[in-house]
Specification:
The complex is a heterodimer.
Chain A (H helix, E strand, L loop, with lengths): L3 H11 L7 H17 L2 H17 L10 H21 L2 H15 L24 H17 L2 H12 L4 H7 L4 H22 L2
Chain B lengths: L2 H7 L1 H11 L6 H13 L1 H23 L9 H17 L1
The chains are: A mainly alpha, B mainly alpha.
Amino acid sequence: MPTEKGLEAGLEDLSILDPKKWVERYADYLFRYAILRIHDQDLAKDLVQETFLAGLKSLSGFAGKSSERTWLTAILKYKIIDLYRKESSGLANIKDLKQEEASQDDFFYNDNGHWKKEYAPRPFEELADPLRDKEFNRILQDCMKKLPKLWASVFTLKHMDDEKTEVILDELRLSKANFWVIIHRTKLSLRACLQKNWL
Amino acid sequence: MNTLKKITYNCRRATFLIEKKSLTPISIKEQFELKLHLAGCSVCQLFQQQSLLINRMVKGHFFKKEADLPNLDSNFKQSLEKRIEAELYRK
């Protein structure tokens, strides 16, 4: 049984950063973390590199309160949010948004808000087989890639990362009403996209 | 059309409430509206099921489906390692 002193020494070991092992230990993990949130391999690579370099610059800021991986992931997460903010402003994105919003106006009748027959949800095919499960996931990722950037950012932060709504409003400079509209519209789009591509 | 009837038929509003409810508690009035709507609308019931399925997939897939995601190529990893080493020696 370890003595109290031994335990303390063990804890201290955990807090020592070892940058020479970073690539071997965390590069793939961080890359996948980024890919799932930005759906672009080249951008994800850049972000992994930037994360390591930023980590090197702030080695002394590591308090040892979290694991090395958690610490690096937190750096990456800030970089992703930065990217979201940049990507979701700008004219190209506004055009994207308008198009997607217009296509959704077709989903419901304007006067009473009822589903139009051709857009109404139909049952998805069963997901019993794990291989189909994988396929479903791939299609879901493709559908997320097609979303307007701002929607994808809001949706990912909320649904994938469980981020607090207030934080998202603040980071992406949204009103609360706007946030809920985006959450709603994103799901309508994603579901419709899945229906179209999942056979 | 009175308000009650409006909500009973309004799928746009109902799907909005379904999404809100999946992320945060909704008000008593909203709960009532949604319940009333869902009781009579099988299409929105289906929407709700599918919406929750999507939520589960989005939340779960990172850990379970890691194997499906692309890997970093080894050339890039090597150059990263060199870069880090260089930065360390510069200090």
